[in-house]
Amino acid sequence: MTGEVTACTTVPARATVITLPDGAQLFVRVDEGNPEAPPMVFLHGNRDNHTHFVELAALLSGERRCASVDLRGHGLSSKEDVPLSAQQCSDDLVAVLDKLSWQRAVLVGHSLGSVAAMLFALDHPDRVSSLVLMGSAAHYEMKWQRPPVTEDTYREVIAQSNERAGPFFFLPQYPKVAARVIASWSWVPFSVHRNLIKLRHPDLRERIAGITARTLVIAGDQDRSTPVSGAELLVERIPDAQLLVISDAGHFMFLEHPVEVALSIRDWLSSTIE
What angle is formed at CA 266 by the lines to CA 250 and CA 207, rounded to 5 degrees? Predict the structure, then answer.
C-alpha cells in the first residue's frame, strides 16, 4: 500500500429517503465526490446501521460519491413487522441505484450486507463495478444459541444475548468499537428483532462462482464470527477475487482499522479497470 488517506472535510453530504415499490422507505446518506469515478455503496450487517460507515465514507469520498444505506428494519429506514431476508435487501438496492441515477456502483458489504452484495452481483452483474466483501462468508450458521424472548423480557434478554455474542464479534483491545455496535444492537424494536433473528443467510457456496465482478475479500485475522477460512473459500470460488487479512482485527475490522481498510480499498480500486 502506498500514499495516505485523509478525511476530506470539504466534501458535502446529504440525506435522502427512497420509497420502494411496496411503500417501505430506506434512509441513505450520500457523501458527494468525483462524479467521473464509479460511485460506492455501503451495506451494513444485521442490526447495524449506516453510521458504522461514517469513517470509511469520509476517507474515500472526494475520490468518488459514497452512499451509506440503512437496510429495511435498520437505522432510520422503515421498521415494519414483516419477514426480512438478504434477498430482499439485495432487491431493494435496485431502487436505491435508480433513485440516485447510478447505473453501476462499487458495492462494499459487511456481514449481512456482504451477502446482499453477492446476491446483487449475481442477479445484476451489469450494475456492479467492483465488489468489496468484509466479514463475509458464502454460508453462515449461528455460533451461539439465542435465548427465547418475549416483548416483556426483551430488554433483559437482549442484554444477555449481546454479552454472549460479544466474543465472536469484538476484541477486548477495542472496547469503543464494541460499545458503539452493541448500542445499535440494543435499541432495535422488538417487532423488528423478532424478524431479524429469523433471517437466515442463503447458502451461496455453489453460486458464487457465477460472480463476474472483480472482488476484494477483507477478513479480520481474529474474527470468530466469519473466520478467515470462510474468506479463503470465497476467494477460491469467485473467479476474480483477492484476499486481504487485517492483523489484530475482528469482525468489525473497518471500525478497528479504518485508515488501513480505506487505503487498501482505494489502492485495490486504483489497480482495477472500473
Answer: 65
